Amino acid sequence: MKEINKHPAPKKLLRQVTAETINGLELGGEIDHPSIIKLETAVGLIAKAWKLPQETLQSSIDLIQRQKQNILSGSGEGVLPPDEDLESYDGPMIVELLWGLFETAVKLECAQDRTVIHETAILIADSLSLGEWIEECGSGNEKN
Q: DSSP of 57-115, one letter per residue?
């Protein structure tokens, strides 16, 4: 059985949410869409909650800004490496990411910041189709 961590390391969590922000930009193309703004805000809150170095946060911000520039210029070019671009998540990977977001929310002192992370978790669960994965797997209580 594959071991699943309760949550990804904070840097990995930041990278995953950064990638989801970039993927949202690639798929939707709207740089000021409310879901993109929410994801961008979450990137900063993850770095804040886990006290990540400023250069780590800046790297994420720079990637997101480069993707926005590519959209505005009409180049259509992606900024993520091919193995991270539109990465496919299975159920355990989604749950791990969501658990990381929930643990991030707990570390934040401001209720408004915690709400943003909670809303981000819901957004990501929907966009990565967690509900569909759960339906496909069933409850585990079916009799053969």
A: HHHHHHHHHHHHHHHHHT-----S-TTTTT----HHHHHHHHHHHHHHHHH---HHHHH
- How far apart are the two ends of the chain, measured CA to CA in Å? 22
Pair 121, 96: CB distance under 8 Å: no
Strand, helix or coil for residue 51: coil
pTM of this structure:
0.83
Do residues 52 and 14 lie in contact, with contact meaning Cβ atoms separated by under 8 Å? yes
Residue 132: partners with Cβ closer than 8 Å, 6 or more residues away: none
Higher pLDDT, 27 or 61: 61
